[in-house]
């Protein structure tokens, strides 16, 4: 089945480049291009596309306003195309909250050597978007799940760790997970597939919404209770030991599973450094990154959770982890925070170092 794509961008050059990329794929075609949301609205009615690519900054109607109306009136998979600027990244984070499936950065048209990799990235993201479960968000949405009760034992917070990996749909899944975490929860390390320049905006947004402190990891930080550390978009994030403490480590080694940061890299480091003191969580995402690393965590004594298919935007990474036998429990996203903290409370206290 051919994936029908509509491209919306005010730049004629970007529309041309994106069209060439899409039409070069054997399983997709551009059925329309639009310079602004007003033209796009008519094209959507006419062509009924499977995926819409949308520039975040548009003339005549703001891209976010258009996205919000679209997800309310005609929900469909939307892939945002964002500029590599601070404003662009902030708008992109908001677009993901409004229901966009994923995003790509605008191509650097002056660098032809990277265009093949860029074309593969766009094609992969369009394929993932075409299979995504769309969950429109609106101002009428129900209340956010409450923050869970504090852990009773301070030793549980200081000895245990929560290690999270995600990809497509993960920004919202991570937000929902972290917003339920109490201020004394164990330290959390997160690998989310996201390019450089966007992870800092992602961390700032989460920090403003959550009871815990959320920051982009810089390497060498002591991992503290009530804090979450997000892998920067340019590097792998690893867990390491320094004496009696857990610390973060940043490495710019080659991509793993085509990703840097890679979930496998983080999970494997947690297996080695924390063993049974870690709890692994794999969330929505395209591909298989994290599955093998989560199995290593399980073999090292960690207890692992996977998001279930019904609540995933893309059931790729959790499915692969489940198929490998890496997950102990599979549950909906809304239930995962409580299950993780429940397990930690039941198995807390001063665990043995490994």
From TrEMBL:
Summarize what the UniProt record says about post-translational modification: Phosphorylated by CheA. Phosphorylation of the N-terminal regulatory domain activates the methylesterase activity.
Which domain of life does this protein belong to? Bacteria
Q: What is its main location?
A: cytoplasm
Q: Which GO terms describe its molecular function?
A: phosphorelay response regulator activity; protein-glutamate methylesterase activity; protein-glutamine glutaminase activity
Q: Which SMART domains match?
A: REC
Question: Which residues in this protein are found as 4-aspartylphosphate?
Answer: 55
Domain CheB-type methylesterase: start-end pairs? 154-347
**Response regulatory domain: which residues?**
4-121
The UniProt catalytic activity note for this protein reads: L-glutaminyl-[protein] + H2O = L-glutamyl-[protein] + NH4(+); [protein]-L-glutamate 5-O-methyl ester + H2O = L-glutamyl-[protein] + methanol + H(+)
- CDD domains according to UniProt: CheB_Rec (cd16432), REC_CheB-like (cd17541)
Q: Which HAMAP family match?
A: CheB_chemtxs (MF_00099)
Q: Please state what the annotation says regarding this protein's domains.
A: Contains a C-terminal catalytic domain, and an N-terminal region which modulates catalytic activity.
General function of this protein: Involved in chemotaxis. Part of a chemotaxis signal transduction system that modulates chemotaxis in response to various stimuli. Catalyzes the demethylation of specific methylglutamate residues introduced into the chemoreceptors (methyl-accepting chemotaxis proteins or MCP) by CheR. Also mediates the irreversible deamidation of specific glutamine residues to glutamic acid.
NCBIfam families xref list = PRK00742.1, PRK12555.1
What is the protein name for this chain? Protein-glutamate methylesterase/protein-glutamine glutaminase
